[in-house]
Each structure stands twice: as C-alpha cells, then as structure tokens.
C-alpha cells in the first residue's frame, strides 16, 4: 500500500476523514495500487463460475470503482456493459482504462441506492462494495438491484468466509470496525466502511425478502476451511420469471 505507486499514510488519513464519495475521489488515481482493489484472481474465478450460467445480454457492474469488474462482464455478456459508481474520481480513472474486447462499455455516475435504470440488465455484479452500506440499507439496495434486472436476471457477487473467532484476521477486522465506529461517532461527515456487517445469513434473508431465489456456488480456486466449508462463495440471486395470470374467458 505504501509503495511509490500507492497512497501515502497522509493521503489515507485525509481520505478517512472525508465523506465516502470525497474519499474515493481523492483515492481514485492510486486505487488500483491498493489492497482495496479486487484481486484479479477473484475476478477470474467469478468469471469462470458465471460462464456456465450465461451467456447474458446486458450487464451492470454495481459500485464499479475504477472498472475492474467490467472485465468479468465482458467475458459473459454479449450486448453491452455498464459501470455505475457515485465517485466522479473513480469513474474518471475507469474511463481511461484499456477496455477488453467484447461488448460496448458505458459509465454512469449514480448512487446504488437510487439507480437511474429500468429493467435493462440480465446480470448485475458487484465486488467489494457492500461494506459501504449499513445493514438497514440492504433491503433498499437489493430492491434497487431487482428493479433493474429483467425477469430471470442474476445478481452475483463473491463473499469471503469470515475469519475464525480469536484468529489474527478476526481481531484485525474487529479492530478496524471498532476504529471506524469511533471515528464516525466523533467526526462528520461519516465514512461508512465496515468489514463485519455484511453477513451471509443476513444477506440471504434480505435477498429472499426482496424477491430473489438464491444459490451459493463454491469457488474452488480458494480451497476450503478446516471445517470443510468453502473459503469463498459466489452468491447468485435470480429474479424469478414473471408468471402469467390466467384470466377466465369473457362472457
């Protein structure tokens, strides 16, 4: 993170004391040189898992950041790909990306909680963005995603298994979230970024309430934990097809 290409400690501190939107505007030029950018290994694994479920026509990268997820959509979508994010700085970097071969790509600045689309997409993906939403915001967020999907469309995102209680990873994430809660209690505007609020059980319930049918796909590239459970899963939530309502014959 503190390599010549990445942000300095001072730059990270300034970002953390900003709003989420302003913070990412500041971080955008160096974002791809930080651990916050989803690793290519994860992106490739998700693309491989989605390929048997496709092909899809139009795809949306929700909270696209600098656009790394667009590479996934380009592999499985045939007609068009859209990246949406509320940070103008991140989108500016995304627009300068070398695009993969495939469908046309467009970029839209918007808030994921108020998407400016109708049911225009067959696949929505998101990578590493859900820590920016509080648990009480998930119903509205999932409702927005459902509203932009066509019937039988998919909403897909990877979820990493939480670290075991008492492990170094557990204490690291707990410490980060605690520090963030203290920061938000003392400083305005808030910077919403938590690692322990997006729990798979809660997410499954909220997806069901939003009208999705959800399946979990293990990503074998990341192996399994000692208890045999996958280290990384792909959540695939499908908007059901609309049922035809039969009407009695007239007269």
Automatic annotation (TrEMBL):
Keywords: Methyltransferase, Transferase
UniProt-listed Pfam families: Methyltransf_25 (PF13649)
InterPro entries attached to this UniProt entry: Methyltransf_25, SAM-dependent_MTases_sf
CDD domains listed in its UniProt record: AdoMet_MTases
Enzyme kind, highest EC tier: transferase
Organism of origin: Streptomyces tendae
Protein name as annotated: Class I SAM-dependent methyltransferase
Family matches, as PANTHER family: 2-METHOXY-6-POLYPRENYL-1,4-BENZOQUINOL METHYLASE, MITOCHONDRIAL, METHYLTRANSFERASE
Record flagged with keyword Glycoprotein: no
GO biological process: one example: methylation
GO MF annotation terms: methyltransferase activity
Enzyme Commission number: 2.1.-.-
Residue stretches making up the Methyltransferase domain: 60-153
Sections of the chain in a coiled coil: none
